Structure formats: structure tokens, C-alpha cells
Fold this protein.
Amino acid sequence: MANGTTLKPKSTTKLERPKLYKVILFNDDYTPREFVTLVLKVVFRIGEDAGYRVMMTAHKLGSCVVVVCAKDIAETKVSEAMDLAKEAGFPLMFKAEPEE
Ligand code: TYC
């Protein structure tokens, strides 16, 4: 161009938006409610009140989405949460699943 700047050619390759993953909490008959709320607080940084509501939703409906985030973060959180449950001897279950 006259002022010395150059124009970038338009790129034709489209960047795919990275897929988001949901972390799902599942109900079981053995894990204490307080422990579920504690795990949500420590691992997912969800406050007491919101954590209690997520836990009660899973308790009543069978499952509840905890967060939606990038795949690696979702998988790390799932294994951190399930490690804590395993250490404490509870069958608490989380899963990371791609969003539709
Ligand atoms: N159902 C459990 C109980 O009554 C509590 C619980 C809630 C466990 C939610 C898991 O994801 C869960 N002790």
C-alpha cells in the first residue's frame, strides 16, 4: 500500500472452536451428602450453597451437570474428585462428556 503497510490475504482455513465438555455428577446410595458438597467445594470451587444445590439435584434426579469447560480441565477435575472419593472409600462418580 502507499503508506508502506501490507494487507494480509484472507485465510481460507476455518478454525474449529474447541469442543466443550460437561462434568456430570452421579447419585449413589452411599456417599454422604456432606462429602459430595465438600468435593464440589474443594475441586470445583463451588460455594457451600451452590454446592448443596448441585448435590441435591443429583440426589433427587440421579445426575447433575457441575461445570462446562475445556476437555483437559474437565478430565483433570473428574480424576481429582474421584481420587478424593476413592481415598475416603466412597463410590462417588463423576464423568466428563462432550457437549452436543
Ligand atoms: N444419595 C446420597 C445419600 O443419600 C448423597 C449423594 C448425593 C450421593 C449426590 C452422590 O452425587 C451424589 N447419602
User: Anything to note?
Assistant: The mean pLDDT is 92. The longest strand covers residues 63-70.
